[in-house]
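Aim 2 progress update. The chain analyzed this quarter is reproduced below.
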Amino acid sequence: MESLNAGQEFEELPETYVIFVTEHDFFGKGAGLYPIERMNLVTGERFNDREHILYVNAQYQANDDLGRLMHDFLCNDPADMHYDILAQRARYFKENPKGVSEMCKAMEDMRNEALERGRILSKIEDIKNIKISLGLTDQQVKDVLKISAEDWKAISARI
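Predicted C-alpha cells:
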C-alpha cells in the first residue's frame, strides 16, 4: 500500500528482498542459498510481484563467495576472515575502545529491550490468568497489578 502512489501501475512496485540468514540448513538440502518465489498454483506461473525471499544457510562453508561469506559471519577472529571489509569492522568492534563501547551499548540496549518484552509478556500472562480465574474487568486487573497507563497501553495492544 505504501510502495505505490495513487495511479501507479502494479509493475512499478519496487523490487524487494527479505533475507533470512539461518544458523542451520533450514531445508536440509546442503545448498547455501534457497531463493523462494511466489507462484500461481493453478497456472504454474510465477507471480511476478517483485518480492523475493532468500534463505541463506550459515552452515554452508564451500570454497565459493557465499561459503567464504558464511565463514566470515561465524568467524570469531578477524585475522581468519576472507573479506577484508568484514574483518575491519569486526576488529573495530572487538579491538578499538570506541567500537567496543558501541558494541557494549548495543548489547545492553538489546538486553534491556528483551527484558522489557519479557516483563510485558509476563504481565500479559498475569492479566489473562487473573481475568479468567477471578472474572475481573480490565480496570480491576489494572488496579490489582498496579499497571501504569503507559504499560497498560502497550500490554493492551498485545492482548
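The chain has a mean pLDDT of 89. The CA atoms of residues 47 and 111 lie 40 Å apart. These observations will guide the mutagenesis experiments scheduled for the next reporting period.
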